Amino acid sequence: MNGLLVTGTDTGVGKTVVAAGLARLLHEAGYRVGVLKPVETGWEGPPGNWPPDARMLAEGARVDNPPEQVAPCVYAEPLAPLVAARRAGRPVDLERIEAAWRWLQDRDWVLVETAGGLSVPLTDTLDYASLAARWKLPVLVVSRPGLGTLNHTFLTVHYARSRGLPVVGVVLCGYPEQPDVAEQTNPAMIEEMCHVPVLGRVPRRPAITSADEAAAAVAEGLRLEAFLARYEELQQRVLHD
Questions:
Q1: How many angstroms separate the CA atoms of 44 and 74, rounded?
Q2: 149 is known to lie in a ligand binding site
Q3: Which of 146, 185, 193, 239 has its CA 20 to 30 A from that of 99?
Q4: Is 16 labeled as ligand-binding?
Q5: What pLDDT, in 10s, does the model give residues 28-76?
Q6: Where are the domains positioned within the chain?
């Protein structure tokens, strides 16, 4: 089973768009894809209904899992999981998360999306980097294309490496049709600073509200063959280290 943690440099950078779009590209290439968002916050719907991020992931992978297997823990307030859990008086249920993860082990690919970035806490002792280490997941970083992204992207990549997590690469989401100077020069500078490839530039859209739209945008900005080649290269490197 191939696995990947899709994380971001900030909230709202396009993690769900990239994860759902990549899931669809893998599915269309013939892979059996599983998706998991261990904790989704900012949704107040009734139990058993689909939170929006989990729905887009499931539709992207074309899976018919029940909602609780894609988003095992859901909180109403749009906060970091640990903060939302404390305020709700309901701790993040790691047993539910682990059960959802085990259920996906027969898939060719499993994409796990974070809520926020790598250092966002789920419990007093566990952040997403810890979860990725536990599940032996390499990391794909989703970043903004514009001014300020160099620092955010470098810090995310650096933290991943400090925790022993291989970084597959970076995807810039929301890349404009007419980029300014910062947006033009940032991809090469990210590669120079972080020593990882920029694997995609997902184009900016007025809004992306469905998995079909996410898949179309990701397909325009990311070559699946390049992603798979980089993933295989990284896995071989890890095996020989």
A1: 8
A2: no
A3: 239
A4: yes
A5: 999 999 999 999 999 998 877 899 999 999 999 999 989 999 999 999 9
A6: 2-240
Q: What is the C-alpha separation between 6 and 3, in angstroms, rounded?
A: 10
pTM, two decimals, is 0.96
Residues of the chain above pLDDT 90, percent: 94
Tell me whether residue 115 is annotated as binding.
yes
Contact at 8 Å (CB) between 168 and 237? no
Length of the chain in terms of residues written: 241
Active site residues: 37
How far out from the chain centre does Cα 116 lie? 9
14 is in an annotated binding site: yes
**Top-tier CATH class for 2-240:** alpha beta
Contact between residue 173 and residue 143 where contact means Cβ atoms under 8 Å apart:
yes
Nearest to 101 by CA among 151, 65, 74: 65
